[in-house]
Each structure stands twice: as C-alpha cells, then as structure tokens.
What does this fold into?
Amino acid sequence: MSILEVNNLSKSFGDLQVLKDISFSVDKGQVVSIIGPSGSGKSTLLRCVNQLETADGGEITVDGIKMLTTENGKAVYAPKKTLRDIRLRIGLVFQNFNLFPHKSVMQNIIEAPVHVLKKSKQEAVAYAEELLEKMGLTGKEKSYPCELSGGQQQRVSIARALALKPEILFFDEPTSALDPELTGEILKIIKELAKERMTMVIVTHEMEFARDVSNHVIFMDGGFIVEEGDPSKLFGDTQNERTKQFLSRYKGTN
Amino acid sequence: MKTDDMLNVAKILLEYLPNTLKLFFFTLLFSIPLGVLVTGLKRCRFKPISWLTNLYILVMRGTPLMLQIVAVYYAIPMIVKGAKDSVAANGGEIGGFIQFLDDCMHSESYMFVALIVAFSLNYAAYFAEIFRGGLEAIPVGQYEAASMLGMTKTQTFFRIIMPQVVKRVIPATANEVIVLVKDTSLATIIAYAEIMLKAKQMMNTYSSIMPLFIAGIFYFVLNAVVTAVFMLIEKHYNYYH
It folds into this structure.
C-alpha cells in the first residue's frame, strides 16, 4: 500500500526550474533514500512534500489524502484544515536540527503533543521518556539544546518528530552538519527505526548508508529522477551513465 | 559653592526627582507596547500601512525630540483652537469632541499628557526598530520546525518566536532606556518641573555650574540602577544561547 504518492511534481524558483516532472511513491514500511549532487532538487522535493515550499504543479497524496492536485494546469492545494491534518501524519528532521533553543529537551519533545494534539502533559512526558531512552538520551531531559553535541541535538529532533507518531518520517540531510563520528550515531538510530518498520524518506549524501538501510533508492540530477530502484542494483550495476559517474566519486573515497 | 549649599541643591533636586521618574515610567509604559504595534504595522502586508509606518518612523527618528515636545504642547492646542474658532465663526455649534479637546488642553495636567504623548511616540519608533531587528534575527528554521509540528501561527509566535526575540532585544532595549533617563531632561523646553529645570534655575540662583553636576549625579545613579536591572534580566535569560 503506498502511503506517499507524488505525480508529475514541478517547481520553479523564478526562471530556474528545480523540479521537473517528478513521480515516485513510497509504500508503508519502506525506507527510501534520495541521493544526487547538490542542487539536484532533492531538498526542494522534500520541502514540497512537507508543505514548506509551494509546488507549481503535479499531485501529492499522503496516506490516502489528496494534498495537491492540478486542475487546468494550475496547482490546487487541499483546504487548510486538510493540510494541517496531513502535516500531523508526517515528521521532518532538519539538517540543522531547528530545535527550540529556549526550551529544554523535554519541552522540545512535548511541545506539539501537549499544545497541538492536546494530550495530557503526563501522557506526553511518559512517551517522551520512552523516546529519549530509545535515542540514548535518558538523563538529558532538563538540558538545553546548546548544552548538547550536534549528534545529541539531532537525536532530540528525531524524538521530537516521533512524538507526534507520524506515519512517515522525512530526513533532510540529517548528518550533513555532523562530523563522521556523530554521523554514525544518527545513522544507527535511523537503522533501528528501519528495523521497526518505520516508513522513512531520507535525503542523504551517505552512499554506503543509503545502500545498507534503504529498500529503494532514487537518484536525482538537474531536477529529474534519473534512475530509481533496488539499492543493490542501483549501486551494484547501474546501466545509467550519469548514475555511474556520480557514484564513482563516492567509491573513490569509501 | 559651599557644602551646605550643595546639600541644599541636592535636597531640592530630590523633591523634583518624582517628576522625572513619572515621565520616565509613563513613557516606558506606553512606548514599549506602542513599539510592538508599530513593528507589526511596519510588517503589514497591506503596503500603504507599511509605508505610513515607515514615514512615521522617519519623522520620529529624523527630528529632534525637543521639537516634537514643542509641537505636541503648543501646536496641537493651536490647531484645536483654530478648529473651534472656525466652527464658531461659521455660526456652528461647538461640537462635544472639539470642546472636550479644548478643555483637555486647558487642564492642568495637559503639560504632562503632552510630554507623555511626545515621548511615547518618539520612543515607540526606536523600540519598533529594535523589535524588528530582534524578530528578523530569528532563523526561518524556527518557523519551519513549528509548522512541521502542526503549531498554529499564533502558537508559533507566542510560544516559539517571542520568547527568543525578548532575549535578543534586551541589550539594545537597555541602551534605549538609558538614553530615555537622560532625555527626560528635554522636558525643560516646556518648563516641566523636573530635575534639569530646577538645576538650571539654581545655576542662576547660585551663579555656579555646580547644580548641573549634582543633577548629573542624579542621572548617573538612576542609570546605574537601570543598568543593574537589565543585567539581572539578561542573567535571567542566560540559561540558553
């Protein structure tokens, strides 16, 4: 069952078309990695799906709810209430965490459950404790983001996203702001989430990780999906010249 | 100047300190909320409102506060009187509102009201720019994170953005408040009985510049207190950066 469907999505910034006719779908429990060079449109794609950018055309359906349709060549978004409803079914982990600096770890995590989902504080705290344990952050409840390492901050932001129990979790280059050691921490967490059959879409530059963790890989370049498929196939023996060229650079370094 | 005289000067100045403080506190009371409002109006998407707000800020920051005090204190009553006279000349009834304004301007407290109006309008312009600076310094990622968590715009503003803006604007606000302490002395231009006016009078009485220095000590002490208060506030917000 597909939980996210994107059809013919397009997006321009002024004269620059950054997404051209993008179509893909994500099944429940699937882990999809989106790879590609900088400026290929990966992040913009993620941001369009997450309503942080407005698409120019195409269709997006999340969990069976139509978020974006195109009528007579014009992009039409669902009513505000529906968009908000969709938003609560998805979570996004940012490249630079975007934790709330004035709130403690616990406050960051329970903010949305308490004030958006209107859960009792007690219930929210109990679930947050559970998430923190999973993230290896027990004991950090009262710390403020500025007191944590980058890896710890990113783990808090994953917990914050998970606190809303999303159907899909998106990652926008979750390790790009981290050094290799801290990167490992985050990748480990994502692997654990994958084991629990969490549906995830990950924009990443970590090729080895993309190959290991995902069931499906999408390679983007110049606003197009150049190639997509099984990771072993795409990383193993791609027939596409552009994919080969892109991956060869990584093979050199790994 | 003899020590006795100096003590006498200090004693008299102390009597007028409440007037200085009244002007200071009432200005803060009105100019800070007004500054928040002006920040909002400046960011209004309806362009004419944003332009008018810019013009207001330009005029308030671009002309001397002393002139603004004079304008509010003398010019506005003249306009009101002009309106009243022209209505009377045309054989019309003096309307309730014009009469009310006219009465206000002849009341004893009008001088103080005029000062508060002039000071608040002026300081609101400065505060508005400080608040705008603080607001624009908040990374867009904070808004994005809040919206990804399903927070409404109101929740985002009051729970996420505003607390961070408050922390950021404290140093610049402290600066402005310290200037305000000294700017209260501009009220001498319309002979409001505050510290500086009395100091000037006593300079004449004693033919000495000493009263001015003693007044200086008063302002210095007041600002030492203001500085200490802001240090405490900064410390309170020091739990994160």
User: Anything to note?
Assistant: DSSP finds nine helices and eleven strands in chain A. The mean pLDDT of chain A is 93. The interface with chain B takes residues 50-52, 84, 87-88, 90-92, 94, 96, 98-102, 111-112, 115-117, 144-146, 157, 160-161, 164 of chain A (CB under 8 Å).
